[in-house]
User: Fold this.
Amino acid sequence: MRLLASFFCAFFLLTASAAPEVQAAQNKRPAAVKKVNTTKTAKAPAKKAASAKKASKGKKNVAAARKTTKKVSSSASRKFASSKHYAKKRKTYARRHVRGPSYAQLMGLRGSSDPLALSTTAVLAYDMENDQILYEKNADTSLPIASITKLMTALVIVESGVDLDQKFAVTTEDFVKSSARSKLRKGMVLSRKQALHLALMSSDNRAAHFLARTFPGGKAKFISEMNAKAVLLAMDDSVFYDSIGLNNGNKCSALDLSHLIAAAAEHDVIRDLSTTPEASFSVGKRYVVSRTTNSFVANDNWDIELQKTGLTTAAGYCMVMQTNISGRPVAMIFLDAPNKAARNHDIQKLHDWLTNGKMLETASLN
Assistant:
């Protein structure tokens, strides 16, 4: 009994001594948890602030990178602009699009005066029915005629009697050096008539060379025939060195060209092919669409029976045509206009003058 009482007393004393420690532990546990939670809560805003700071720094780096790229790009552009390669391309473009002085300018004829104040250097209006000069300005001066040459090319082809339907292939020999574009490609097969159409309507240089190359006897024979034809037509101030007009040695006076127009207008094929506004050609497996170089052809106020345009630096802007005014055929020749707009303005001005006065005046005299 005493032993049992002693055991309970010892157990009681042990429990009483452990209670404060358990209570202390229980009291400490929430504080520890609170401390941990407080630490996590404190670290979260700090981490968020650090992330925001890092993102801001990243944006600044991207902006700086873009700025650097732009700077490098701009620097590269300036470097390219000042490079020899770019300077060469710019010089080539300028040489192609900015024309130098024409032959007439070098002679001091550009800007010479006339009653209608035309800016074209050499002008002639010729009444072909009555063999009468209606208007003239430097009409007897021999000047480069550019692609007006192709009118003589057409006359020689037609009057030579060669087969216009005979076909040949375009070769690289026909690729003459010129800034003007051509629809003809190596290997295309076309007839003489198709080449003649392209040469007269759209002033295709390859087509004109094609005609001379495929002529019996070759190009040399063809050029000889051109000059022989000029002699027969009493074109005393004229000479030809190619069938195209790229050779600046090809020269005629406006009076001489009136003889050429009269001879060419006798052939229906030349009149028809030179005054077609637009045409489509079948050349082998391909189709070629080409248009006229003369804007007056499609003008309802004009009755054009034959025409040809021309342009080189030496010749300036040129045009010849046969048109009906007051019911009569009139040859109009314009050589060395300063630009296309000035040429067309002069043509319309002379046409209006003839329509409103001169033609009626000469008709009453006859």
In short: The chain has ten helices and eleven strands. Residues 28-43, 67-82, 84-97 have pLDDT under 50 and may be disordered.
